[in-house]
Design goal:
The complex is a heterotrimer of chains A (341), B (586) and C (265). By secondary structure, chain A is mainly α. Chain A is built from 14 helices and four strands. Chain A folds into two domains: 113 residues, no CATH class; 224 residues, MetI-like (MetI-like fold), CATH 1.10.3720.10. In chain A, a hairpin with a 4-residue loop joins strand 3 and strand 4. In chain B, the strands form five sheets. In chain B, strands 12-16-11-15-13-14 form a six-stranded mixed sheet. Helix content of chain B is 25%, strand content 17%. Chain C has a single domain, classed as Orthogonal Bundle (MetI-like fold), CATH 1.10.3720. Helices cover 69% and strands 0% of the residues of chain C. The chains are: A mainly alpha (341), B alpha+beta (586), C mainly alpha (265). Chains in contact: A-B, A-C, B-C. Chains A and C meet through helix 1, helix 7, helix 8, helix 9 and helix 12 of A and helix 3, helix 4, helix 8, helix 9 and helix 10 of C.
């Protein structure tokens, strides 16, 4: 068991490094980060200065090494040693220390990428948790109801509504909820993020409702369909037939045997979806101007803020990899056969 | 600076605007007397779209709306423009004891600091702070986002600062600011902007008659506290010397910021005409779109009752502005003109340029933007809000476009032209479609070149580079202060250095010795009327030569909350709502 | 006649809205006209739909072809190829998809126009969307196909082909592939509507094909503000998008039920 866990973690680390490499090559080899930092009114002198000071004149392999080193032990900015040494003497405030795991430094927002991630993460985590609860509770509930009433009008309504919700783009649903449900009809307070520290748990929950709902609707629709299919599948298994044949009531068959088999794979799927959401709900956050990681991604893209984009991709990838490991190890714990694979 | 040549065009267009031609503030609301009617206290909210503010460091700020707001709440200048409905307001003293003195008709200007003016940490503002503030605008690395903006007026030839003891020393090129400038250049700079006690004296190469307007309208001559300077890391910090100060360390360009009263500020050093400072708290809140802002102001509930937005009502919301809202809807003229830059290096034949101008369907463009609430056709880059405004010979062309006249000018030729625009909104794309069709009627072969929001290089880099495969592109301009000097030279004077970025906003690289000559004459003249006449002539000469395609003189169309008083778009705030006189009704 | 580009500003009032009831409905413009400049709504939605489907279908073909080829190789090979492809799938699935679609647009479109010389504008934007949707979409196909192949490879006809001396290429694509058409078809039908939605989302972020060339996504984005000003213009593209996505999903579900007896209930 422990050997399996260690092997799984090692694979995860290799995967993460491979991902960092791919991201690095994609963004730095194809892009022109110095030009992006330089801004709208870029003079050749300014460009040359930035290229030098930020180390973009170095070979890509060296830059990658530096980046990985920064992840492992941290690094200082600006990266050019001579320039930084001079700055240390003349103006030490301008030297930025970025402790491990250093994801980079964003010239555009004048802060380390780590600081940016820490600043924007609370909204995303809050949203993800809230949306997760909504979509699991209602997705599974409606999915089970639909499966139980398979073929009846209730099933048809649930499946029909689900399909439509699934088809509507998130930005359309979000804009509608914001401009009509919140502003025009005043059915819920205008969504404005309040942290627990600022407004207490109740206000935090209220402030998140509309965007969390927007985000949850899409997943909810998907999970209704998946739950329905899983439950129907498990209800057609032989052991269920055996249980029925033994004369157990439909309720016992459903809850003791059918649901348990269906929900285990569903929850591991949900774990991975939740991890993926930690990268930020790009569109939901953009519509509601919620300052989460997805919102940060949108503005960083517009500002050509490559260091932040790279940092976000790595953070998101790490979340998925970690969730994978956790889910796998839990699974192996529950089901010993997995370890033998 | 209010440099809005290409800047912010995207937002303007999303916003679509409006209105009633040249009539100043019309319906409802406005026209407050800032001195008496306001009520103290309360929280005022200013709504905008997130990500628009590119800096709060004074040398990085160049958008008109930012200058307008920050001048009223945190950044005092040597001089300021008053809160007034007057279309030609007189500049008044702010940090300085008077509006500046000159003994040689504008070649040197002196200002003396008032006693008792302080930074938010309680330190007195000194002449060295003034010097230091100006010196930072020479450092290209500090002016991230709007890089080189501080140099535009002070360094592009016409308004060079010079060291009087060595007039041939090229300060604009040699000096790179206080952090990296050589001691020699620093010494020259300190003689060009010299301190004696509390008095600073600026020495110019050419006379600059309306310099006190520039000190009011730009942040370049504002003081900056040296001990506060952390270089580029200060991009979103604010060291206030005004009635409010920022809560927290940095302003968030995506969320906004909250300003509270600044205890170090002494109202007796200031004037109610410049800063009434009624609310206790001023909040800047940034959201996703102008549509959301308009919906919130329409709903008028909670804290939004004391809210406003410098953005115009977008045209897709016009139908929701019903007559019963007239007490909180304001239409006014705007200092913005919208036109198209012509790349004079690719369209070298004046006949082709004039054919393009003749064929242009200005009326269609305006309709696409939202109709007469948004703007009216014009023939020039000069806004009707500027003293000395005069239509030129292009006013004789049918606003719907004259395809026949254009065909005649082309003489059967069918030139291919490439039209670039920043594809940031549906409206811009629709305007492009209208232009394309009007030009094709005259025989042009038009290729549209929409440049995506996140394209690399971006829109500004593409239209600003030289050479470029673009023949025509969008532009807009609002003068930094109400003078032809803030319009004609930046757009039409040939670029003395052939720079591609940073210096000058003549992105079409238009170059005409006659226009340059008239601008030079105007620079050397000391008579306002004669200057106006010369600059108007320069514009007329450029227009007749096909330097640009004029489109529209924009209007503003604002809505604000029912508990907000003192709403007034005025000259001082580039016709954005002036934050200085607003108050929250009890 | 379909004409998605000609403007009709004579039909627009001074508020920028179409003159006449229901967004300016007439025989010439059965779904009314676009506010502002008066292009024909029906024509724009029609062309937009065609382009959206083209992009989505191309990306779906990309995903399915790559996914099937790698899935067969992984399933049939018992050694390193399976492991390698498995790790590659893991790697691609690590990437946050929406974030990558957004973040890569700047650099990749520059690379497409610069290095590959694809004309800037519509062709480059469309290529980008097809490429990234395809690249991030194949792993799920590979997993499903691999599973199917694992059960196929023990069947007698595969052993028979091997004994007759068939090479790997022949074995994979002449013997195995023809037995996979059912799951391939189902996958394609389910991926396609997902990509139609994804293209719309990318349009909202300003990454897909840009106006004036219409796609369902950019039309929808432009119509968002008109819910009260011009309801028909607001609802028509949304309705069509829902119709298309729901139809393909139902088709995919139906196909799966019909072709896979185990799941047909």
């Amino acid at each position: 068991m422990i050997a399996y866990a260690i092997r799984r973690i090692l694979v995860g680390i290799v995967l993460l490094l491979a991902m960092v490499l791919v991201v690095f090559v994609l963004f730095f080899a194809a892009g022109n980060p110095a030009r992006d930092i330089c801004g709208k009114y870029c003079t050749p002198e300014k460009l040359a200065n930035i290229t030098q000071v930020y180390g973009y004149n170095q070979p890509i392999s060296y830059q990658f090494g530096q980046f990985v080193q920064g992840l492992a032990v941290g690094r200082d900015y600006p990266v050019d040693d001579a320039y930084r040494a001079a700055l240390e003497k003349s103006n030490p405030d301008l030297v930025i220390h970025c402790p491990a795991p250093c994801l980079g430094y964003s010239q555009h927002s004048a802060m380390t990428v780590n600081a940016a991630v820490v600043k924007y993460a609370p909204v995303t985590i809050s949203l993800a948790i809230y949306a997760f609860i909504i979509w699991i509770v209602f997705g599974v509930l409606f999915g089970v109801i639909a499966a139980v009433f398979k073929g009846k009008w209730l099933d048809r309504i649930i499946v029909g509504v689900t399909l439509v919700v699934y088809a509507l783009p998130t930005f359309f649903i979000g804009t509608f909820l914001l401009q009509f449900v919140a502003i025009r009809w005043k059915l819920v307070p205008y969504p404005r993020y309040v942290s627990i520290a600022d407004g207490g748990v109740l206000n935090w929950i209220i402030s998140l409702t509309l965007p969390a709902l927007t985000l949850a609707l899409f997943y909810m629709a998907a999970y209704v369909r998946i739950t329905r299919a899983f439950v129907l599948e498990s209800l057609s298994e032989d052991y269920i037939r055996t249980a029925r044949a033994k004369g157990l009531s439909e309720r016992v068959v459903l809850f003791k045997h059918g649901l348990r088999a269906a929900l285990t794979p569903l929850l591991s799927m949900a774990g991975l979806d939740f991890a993926a959401l930690l990268a930020g709900a790009v569109i939901t956050e953009a519509v509601f101007t919620y300052q989460g990681l997805g919102f940060l991604a949108v503005i960083s893209n517009q500002n050509a803020d490559l260091p932040v984009l790279i940092g976000l991709v790595i953070v998101a990838g790490a979340a998925v990899i970690i969730a994978n490991i956790v889910v796998d190890i839990l699974y192996a714990y529950v089901d010993p056969r997995v370890r033998l694979r | 600076m209010t440099k809005k040549l290409l800047s912010r065009v995207g937002v303007i267009a999303v916003t679509g605007v409006l209105a009633a031609a040249l009539a100043a503030c019309s319906s409802g609301g406005g026209t407050p007397a800032p001195t008496s009617s306001g009520q103290k206290g309360g929280t005022l909210t200013s709504l905008d779209v997130s990500g628009e503010y590119e800096a709060t460091d004074p040398v990085g700020v160049y958008l008109g709306v930012e200058i307008a707001n920050f001048r009223r709440i945190v950044y005092r200048g040597l001089t300021a423009l008053p809160i007034t409905a007057d279309k030609n307001p007189k500049v008044v003293a702010d940090l300085a004891t008077d509006t500046g003195t000159t003994k040689d008709e504008g070649k040197t200007w002196s200002f003396t600091l008032k006693k008792g003016v302080k930074w938010q940490d309680g330190t007195a503002i000194t002449c060295a702070d003034l010097q230091y503030g100006l010196s930072r605008s020479y450092d290209a690395s500090l002016v991230a986002g709007g890089g080189g903006v501080g140099l535009t007026y002070f360094g592009d030839g016409s308004y060079n600062l010079i060291d009087p003891s060595d007039p041939s020393y090229d300060l604009a090129t040699e000096y790179t600011g206080p952090l990296t400038g050589t001691p020699e250049a620093q010494a020259h700079f300190e003689k060009a902007a010299s301190c004696s006690g509390d008095t600073i004296t600026y020495h110019f190469q050419n006379p600059w008659a309306d310099f006190p307007y520039a000190t009011a309208a730009l942040f370049s001559t504002d003081p900056y506290e040296k001990s506060f300077d952390k270089g580029a890391a200060n991009l979103f910090t604010i060291n206030s010397n005004g009635p409010y100060k920022l809560e927290g360390d940095t302003f968030d360009q995506n969320a906004g910021g909250t300003f509270v009263r600044n205890p170090a500020y002494d109202a007796s050093t200031d004037s109610k005409v410049v800063r009434a400072a009624y609310p206790d708290t001023i909040k800047f809140e940034f959201v996703d779109s102008p549509e959301t802002i308009t919906e919130r102001l329409l709903a008028d509930s909670g804290s939004d009752q004391a809210a406003y937005s410098p953005l115009n009502i977008p045209s897709d919301k016009y139908s929701e502005i019903t007559p019963d809202l007239s007490s909180r809807v304001v239409t006014s003229t705007s200092p913005y003109t919208r036109f198209l830059e012509i790349n004079s290096k690719t369209l070298t034949d004046p006949n082709v340029r004039n054919a393009l101008i003749a064929a242009t369907d200005k009326a269609g463009v305006i309709k696409a933007e939202g109709g007469s609430k948004w703007g009216i056709p014009t023939s020039t880059v000069v806004s009707s809000a500027i003293p000395g405004f005069k239509e030129n010979s292009l006013s004789k062309i049918d606003p719907n476009g004259d395809a026949a006249a254009a065909k005649k000018l082309l003489g059967g030729a069918t030139p291919e032209i490439r039209f670039a625009f920043a594809d940031t909104s549906t409206v811009i794309e629709q305007v492009a479609a209208v232009l394309q069709q009007s030009w094709e009627k005259a025989g042009f072969k038009v290729t549209l070149d929409p440049i995506a929001k996140d394209a690399k290089p971006g829109y500004y880099a593409q239209v600003g580079s030289d050479p470029k495969p673009i023949d025509v592109f969008f532009a807009g301009w609002a003068a930094d202060w109400p003078s032809l000097f803030a319009v004609v030279p930046p757009i039409l004077q040939s670029n003395p250095k052939g720079a591609t970025f940073g210096v000058g906003f003549n992105y079409g690289f238009y170059s005409n010795p006659k226009v340059d000559g008239l601008i030079k004459q105007a620079n050397q003249s000391t008579d306002t009327a004669e200057q106006q006449k010369l600059l108007t002539e320069a514009d007329a000469a450029a227009a007749a030569d096909g330097a640009y395609v004029p489109l529209a003189n924009q209007n503003n169309y604002f809505i604000y909350g029912s508990k907000l008083g003192g709403f007034l778009p005025d000259v001082a705030s580039s016709y954005y709502p002036d934050l200085g006189g607003m108050y929250v009704k009890k | 006649m379909l004409d998605p580009f000609t403007t009709h500003q004579k039909l627009i009032n001074d508020n920028g809205l179409p003159i006449g009831a229901f967004g300016g409905i007439s025989w010439a413009h059965p779904l009314g006209i676009e506010p502002g400049i008066g292009r024909d709504t029906l024509s724009r939605i029609w062309l937009g739909l065609a382009l959206s489907l083209f992009i989505s279908a191309a990306a779906a073909v990309f995903s399915v072809v790559v996914g099937v080829v790698l899935g067969i190789i992984a399933g049939m090979s018992r050694r390193w190829a399976d492991t390698l492809i498995g790790r590659l799938v893991d790697l691609v699935l690590c990437f946050p998809q929406t974030l990558m679609l957004l973040a890569l647009s700047g650099v990749l479109i520059g690379w497409l126009t610069g290095t590959l010389k694809i004309p800037a504008g519509d062709p480059a934007q469309a290529t980008y969307v097809i490429l990234v949707l395809g690249i991030f979409g194949w792993p799920s196909v590979t997993r499903i196909i691999r599973g199917q192949v694992l059960s196929l490879r023990e069947r007698e006809f595969i052993d028979a082909a091997r004994l007759l001396g068939a090479g790997n290429g022949r074995l994979y694509f002449k013997e195995v592939l023809p037995n996979l058409w059912a799951p391939i078809l189902v996958q394609f039908t389910l991926i396609l509507p997902a990509y139609v939605s994804a293209e719309a989302a990318l349009s909202y972020l300003g990454i897909s094909i840009l106006p004036p060339t219409p796609t369902l996504g950019n039309i929808l984005k432009g119509s968002l503000g008109y819910a009260s000003g011009d309801f028909l213009f607001f609802i028509a593209p949304a309705f069509l998008l829902v119709l298309i996505v729901v139809s393909f999903n139902l088709l995919g579900d139906g196909l799966r039920d019909a072709l896979d007896p185990r799941s047909s209930r």
